């Protein structure tokens, strides 16, 4: 990618920087010579983990604070060239149980981040981590960016609003922003304690612990992005002006059923087992059935496409957690 | 309409009840024998006006409180059969200047209203007043409910979220809710002090004061709903189970250019004049061009259609403000 030299010497802020994607992004930016500041609240239920930056700790600045804290953010944003805005509440169940927390983080804090940028650092470029979750149950497959947004949980509604604040501030105030609608992202440093980030985390934890993992239903098709591919997309979106004001789907090929994914995981890991289960009624109501993305727009506009196959990605992930499991429990 | 007898003896709460649409709705519900409670904060910049209920004051209960006040709402909701949820910040410019207030009212308070209903009055039926504003600049005309939502201001984003909370609580928790996407509503009791509710209010005030009014650009097509038609739609949506979980466009026929509307208004009022002006640059950026709705969905599903022509509606409106102007300045 031709974004490779663009970050040398630039100042970069990453919200949610101790989390799964944020820390992988930080590692790549450090390698490219950027001055990286991570903001993270280390809320225990979220993805932040100090071990995620164990190998780059001396090369970055870490600031423990919450994106709801407008004053600290006002200080931190000054002088930054890029903001990768990744902090968020990601759990769908938590968003239903604590809808106000979800609103404060995914909705109100996003507005306040943009207001602070507008007032104190208007030349910044922002890449926002949105989610395919906001589409809800697809009308057609693969889902492109013209698909209606019909979120099926509080999290989806607030993420939808958060995404649109970014597009609005780009369009009205020229705060250059774009949003990537991430599909199921996986890889080293994802949260595996529970399913708050992705069910795949739980599978891999149980596999590493030598226990069978549960596969719900099994027939649903999904697509997956390995984290390094997501990092590529974020860096491209950051440096390319064509991205401004745009939303882009990320996606992975091929779409795969959860049962086939479980099979592939067991094969890659050379061991382990799973149990097929049916959804409880409550869970079934917000199930979206099959989902996979059409990502032609980002392919055409920015030249992005996934480079890591699912088999390669699962292999690297399993290896990572075999070595580092105890840091993630 | 066959909703006519449904409200006799029923308990109805209207948020924003002292406002333009809320007070017209209250009057109709009183006529149908409902026990009506109005909730309104009387924030001076919003639409609440005690004169709006001057003739029905003895037949309703008025509670001055803010929808952000969760505890008072918790008390007020109990025992209610219907909630017409009309309270909102409507000004696009105010939403850009005070984005947090707009978020608190149009987004967070909506979530809290729904949470309170879920916990304390789960059998209630809710009709939410949404807006065509959330569509943004149309891709095609007339705009139907399959059109993407691309709000062009903070208000639009927050209204979009507020609408979706209602649909979500219907789908996940069976709190029966639906949303009407209102187009330009006009009629007696609208705010005319300024353009916060509709530009047409300002036109009619200036006309009544014998001053020329400004028509911005003039070529843009718009559709208009007379307030009694909107009230009809709300009552239908309230009593019909087919409405649950649905969003419906309202609309008016024919679409008319602002210049032709100005001509019609001057004709109906038998006097007055206007001045054509160009948008300032800032305003032009968020202009949406032409808009008019396809309202086949509500016509087909609920049998609603507008009954008051634009000429009739403008006539009634002009007459109302000729008699009552001083209560609205």
- In N-to-C order, the SSE pattern of chain A is EHEEHEHHEHEEHEEEHEEHEHHH
The CATH architecture of the domain at 11-187 and 224-252 and 294-307 in chain A is 3-Layer(aba) Sandwich
Major sheet size, sense and barrel closure of chain A: 7 strands, parallel
Classify the oligomer.
homodimer
Physical arrangement of strands within the biggest beta sheet of chain A = 3-2-1-4-5-6-11
* Tally of contiguous helical segments of chain A: 11
Report the CATH C-level class of the domain at 11-187 and 224-252 and 294-307 in chain A: Alpha Beta
Spell out the blueprint of helices and strands:
The structure is a homodimer of 329-residue chains.
Chain A: E1 11-15, H1 20-31, E2 35-40, E3 60-64, H2 70-77, E4 82-85, H3 92-97, H4 99-120, E5 125-131, H5 154-173, E6 177-182, E7 184-186, H6 199-208, E8 213-216, E9 221-222, E10 224-226, H7 227-239, E11 247-249, E12 256-257, H8 258-268, E13 274-277, H9 281-285, H10 296-302, H11 310-324
Parallel strand pairs in A: 1-2, 1-4, 2-3, 4-5, 5-6, 6-11, 7-10, 8-13
Antiparallel strand pairs in A: 9-12
Helix pairs in contact in A: 1-7, 2-4, 4-5
Give a description of the structure.
With 329 residues, chain A is an alpha/beta fold. Helices cover 39% and strands 16% of the residues of chain A. Chain A has a domain at 11-187 and 224-252 and 294-307: NAD(P)-binding Rossmann-like Domain (Rossmann fold, 3-Layer(aba) Sandwich), CATH 3.40.50. In chain A, helix 1 packs across helix 7 (227-239), helix 2 (70-77) packs parallel to helix 4 (99-120) and helix 4 (99-120) runs parallel beside helix 5 (154-173). The first copy, chain A, is globular and about 55 Å long. The interface between A and B is medium-sized, with 29 and 29 residues.
């Amino acid at each position: 990618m031709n974004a490779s030299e663009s970050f040398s010497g630039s100042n970069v802020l990453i919200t949610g920087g101790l989390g799964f994607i944020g820390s992988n992004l930080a590692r790549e930016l450090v390698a490219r010579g950027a001055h990286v500041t991570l903001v993270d609240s280390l809320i225990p239920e979220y993805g932040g983990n100090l071990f995620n930056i164990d190998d780059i700790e001396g090369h970055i600045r870490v600031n423990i604070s919450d994106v709801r804290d407008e004053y600290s953010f006002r200080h931190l944003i000054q002088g930054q060239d890029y903001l990768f805005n990744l902090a968020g509440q990601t759990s769908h169940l938590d968003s239903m149980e604590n809808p106000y927390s979800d609103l404060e983080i995914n909705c109100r804090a996003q507005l306040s981040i943009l207001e602070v940028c507008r007032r104190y650092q208007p030349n910044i470029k922002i890449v926002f981590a949105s989610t395919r979750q906001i589409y809800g149950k697809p009308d057609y497959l693969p889902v492109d960016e013209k698909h209606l947004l019909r979120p099926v949980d509080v999290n989806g509604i607030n993420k939808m609003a958060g995404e649109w604040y970014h597009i609005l501030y780009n369009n009205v105030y020229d705060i250059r922003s774009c949003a990537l609608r991430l599909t199921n992202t996986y890889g080293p440093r994802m949260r595996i304690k529970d399913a708050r980030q992705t069910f795949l985390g739980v599978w891999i934890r149980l596999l590493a612990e030598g226990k069978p993992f549960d596969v719900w239903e099994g027939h649903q098709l999904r697509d997956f992005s390995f984290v390094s591919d997501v990092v590529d997309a974020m860096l491209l979106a950051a440096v390319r002006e064509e991205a401004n004001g745009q939303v882009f789907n990320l996606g992975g090929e091929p779409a795969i059923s959860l049962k086939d994914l479980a099979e592939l995981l067991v094969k890659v890991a050379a061991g382990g087992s799973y149990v097929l289960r049916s959804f409880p009624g409550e869970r079934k109501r917000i199930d979206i059935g099959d989902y996979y993305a059409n990502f032609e727009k980002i392919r055409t506009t920015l030249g992005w496409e996934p480079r890591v196959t699912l088999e390669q990605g699962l292999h690297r992930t399993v290896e990572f957690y075999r070595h580092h499991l105890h840091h993630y429990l």
